[in-house]
Specification:
By secondary structure, the protein is an alpha/beta fold. It contains five helices and six strands. It comes from Streptomyces rishiriensis.
Length: 170
């Protein structure tokens, strides 16, 4: 049964989080309600909180501002380009932000590829643990977030990375 998917739901300050893992207990997705492209429980998935103990503990510590870096086994399936973009996201530290253009440069993409980078970031299946919320517009504006801009603001505020001036929501 290599296609076995475990799932659980955990309460958070952002609402209930849906977590999925594979048969090896590797985290494969973290979604929030109403997320653009987010996962929903499917027939055949097995509800079992067991594979998620470490993830649940680390998420609780993160939301309590006691954890700055997740240490979880992660697996995501994407194109080679998306995998490169997601790896670049993984390198953005807690409390910092970066721009779509900076991510494009990190993965060796041209300035013309910023939209493709945005698409890859928007397709990130591991919200919060893979910090796509740390990517902002070149002008400092808080641009799109698959989990909703309100959640992006909450995450950046938790991490202390919102600038003092008011942010423009685009």
């Amino acid at each position: 049964m290599t296609d076995l998917t475990y799932w659980t739901s955990v309460e958070s300050p952002l609402g209930p989080l849906l977590l999925t893992a594979d048969a090896d207990s590797t985290l494969t997705s973290l979604s929030v309600p109403g997320q653009k492209g987010g996962r929903t429980v499917q027939d055949g998935w097995r509800h079992d909180p067991g594979p998620f103990r470490s993830a649940v503990e680390q998420l609780a510590a993160y939301f309590a501002a006691e954890l700055k870096e997740f240490r979880l086994p992660l697996r995501s399936d994407g194109t080679e380009f998306r995998e490169r973009v997601w790896a670049a996201l993984d390198s953005v530290p807690y409390g910092a932000t970066t721009t779509y253009g900076e991510i494009a440069a990190r993965v060796g993409a041209s300035r013309m590829a910023v939209r493709a980078v945005g698409g890859a970031i928007g397709a990130n299946p591991l919200l919060i643990v893979r910090p796509c919320h740390r990517v902002i517009g070149a002008d400092g504006s808080l641009t799109g977030y698959a989990g909703g801009l309100e959640r992006k603001v909450r995450l950046l505020s938790l991490e202390g990375s919102l600038q003092e001036r008011s942010q423009t929501l685009v």
